[in-house]
Every structure is written in structure tokens, then in C-alpha cells.
Design goal:
By secondary structure, the chain is mainly beta. Helix content is about 0%, strand content about 45%. The chain is globular, with a radius of gyration of 14 Å. The termini are far apart.
């Protein structure tokens, strides 16, 4: 299983980016969730949101309204659209796949924890500055 994150770059505040996470070796229908994470310089990795194989999407409160997760099953790719970028969004963005199905608890913020995920992409750098 491989995940390839791409789409990062340098943008000015207020700009937008769409990050992609292309999966290979597994289909989006086979994973439990695809999560997006970011790690800013000197900070811990934080979960941004995830999308389940059934299409359920969850976001951490701090990104609601600006970040949108979507997917294209035909391309086996998950996207993270980021609008109105702010300097504090500067980070390396990662996607990750959780394969194991969990049946004893509902989906929720616990799926923003990095240890829940089995496979990771290499990350793509987003830099927001004027």
C-alpha cells in the first residue's frame, strides 16, 4: 500500500490549494478511513479530518469552513481543498490510511489520532507567506 500526497506549494495569505492523496495497492473502498494531518515546524502532528469509505467526513473544529475533504473513487484519490490560507496553515500535510474496520465505536474525533493509521504518505509542504 502506498499513498502519494501532492499539491503543496507556496501561496500568499488568502489563496487556495488543493492537495491530493493518491492511493495504490488498495482501493478507497477497502480502507476504513483516509485521514489528513499536518505538522507545522516545531509542533506535533495534528489531525485535520478524515473521510470514511462510506463517505462520512469529519473535520477538527479549527478548520471547519475552510478545509474540504473529497474523493474520486475512479482515480483512487482523496483531496483536501484549503481556502483562505493563513500563515498558520504552513505545515507539511500528510495523508494516511486506516485499514482495519472498527465496529465497537462510532466514527469521531478519535480517528484524528495518528496512531490509528496504518499507512502514511510522504507529505507535501504548504507554505503561506506574503
Amino acid at each position: 500500500v502506498q499513498l502519494q500526497a501532492s499539491g503543496g506549494g507556496s501561496v500568499q495569505p488568502g489563496g487556495s490549494l488543493r492537495l491530493s492523496c493518491a492511493a495504490s495497492g488498495i482501493t478507497l473502498e477497502e480502507v476504513y478511513t483516509i485521514g489528513w494531518f499536518r505538522q507545522a515546524p516545531g509542533k506535533e502532528r495534528e489531525g485535520i479530518g478524515f473521510i470514511s469509505r462510506a463517505g462520512y467526513i469529519y473535520y477538527v473544529d479549527s478548520v471547519k469552513g475552510r478545509f474540504t475533504i473529497s474523493r474520486d473513487n475512479a482515480k483512487n484519490t482523496v483531496y483536501l481543498q484549503i481556502n483562505n490560507l493563513k500563515p498558520e496553515d504552513t505545515a507539511v500535510y500528510f495523508c494516511a490510511a486506516k485499514v482495519g474496520v472498527v465496529t465497537d465505536r462510532p466514527m469521531g474525533p478519535w480517528l484524528l489520532g495518528a496512531p490509528q493509521y496504518d499507512y502514511w504518505g510522504q507529505g507535501t509542504l504548504v507554505t503561506v507567506s506574503s
